[in-house]
Description:
The chain is mainly alpha-helical. The protein has one domain (2-381). It has 16 helices and 3 strands. It has helices at residues 2-7, 11-38, 46-67, 76-96, 116-134, 142-146, 150-161, 166-182, 187-207, 209-212, 215-222, 236-248, 273-306, 310-334, 352-381, 387-392, and strands spanning 98-100, 103-108, 113-114. A 3-stranded antiparallel sheet has the order 1-2-3. α2 (11-38) runs antiparallel to α13 and α3 runs parallel beside α15 (352-381). The protein starts with a helix and ends in a 7-residue tail after the last helix. It is found in: Membrane. It is a multi-pass membrane protein. Keywords: Cell cycle, Cell division, Cell shape, Glycosyltransferase, Membrane, Peptidoglycan synthesis, Transferase, Transmembrane, Transmembrane helix.
Amino acid sequence: MLKKILKSYDYSLIIAIVLLSLFGLVMVYSASMASAVQRYGVESDYFYQKQKLYLIVSALIFIFIALFPYKIMKSTKFLLPMVGFSIIGLLGLFLFGQVRGNAQSWYDFGFISIQPAEFVKISIIIYLSAVYAKKQAYINKFNHGVLPPLAYLVIVLGLIAFQPDFGTALIIGLIAGTIIISSGMNIKTITKLVMLGMILLSPVILVLQDEIFSEKRLERFEVLNNPFKDELDSGFHLANSYIAIGSGGVNGLGLGKSVQKLGYLPESHTDFIMAVIAEELGVWGVSFVILTLGYIVLRGIYLGLRCKDPFGSLLAIGISSMIGIQSFINLAGVSGVMPLTGVPLPFVSYGGSSLLQLAIAAGILVNVSMFVKYENKYKHKHPEKTSNHQEGNVYQFRT
Length: 399
């Protein structure tokens, strides 16, 4: 049995995740060398050493989650504590949270800083996937099948918006939207849900309009047209990102030889790490990151489509959408397609919370892939033992 299970893991997916994480570790070292000394007054390998520690811990978590049967997570005994801890964690920020980037969204424990909203992304994926998988038989009954699970989502989005961290709230909303669309609801039900969402969102926008439409946030849109018009102030980050990307060309300047990381890109090892990759490794480095991320996302969606269990299917699609959405927002911000939001590049950017959260997500995705492959092999060899199980599955689930 153990031998069959080990053979069933999707090793191509595991290799892609490992390669991207190790590549990110190297680039964090290269991108943070100068800023560690100049801006933070620490050793040049300070962020590298911390990221290496995060990566080791993340690897252990990844292995544990990958061996942990994902179906256990849909039980009420798992879901209720997860939801409770998520809400308590977000509420506690208003009393004990540290302000970073104009948002009170971090707990500082000295040796590590934790952003609860990162882990809420996973809890939203697990919760909505579990509840909507259970409600497949009446998924289009609006008051009974659709609305109840969204109470948790509304509470979470409200708490994050009032930090205020609209970027993370947007990402969680998009992830939830992907799961909802993939849950099997018909167009009529989804249309009702969108209209209700717009109605509920209107008073929130009215209350937070000064924060949402602040002068600083509006500048982020204005600077997209021409960051060089005010390159020493509002356009500073984007202008230097353009210079870094343009300087790299096809082959790049060489690993460790970026000029823009020498104080011109203040967040060179986090938000703008792709700009450093482009400058040092050129088109080849950028292509490696985008293709590897693309493979992970598409592989996850493929697994979700193949999975016969609605819970596993929604988990795979939700996790894939999270990685894809965060990747797109980061790359779009660095390249000036959309305003900067401070979203890290998955598996590549520096950050403990992000890496630990991604380790959990990747472990779940790999575990789902293992069950998909194992069950398909088992059913193929022993169809008579699984016929009853197949009849009991909810096959009206459609993506």
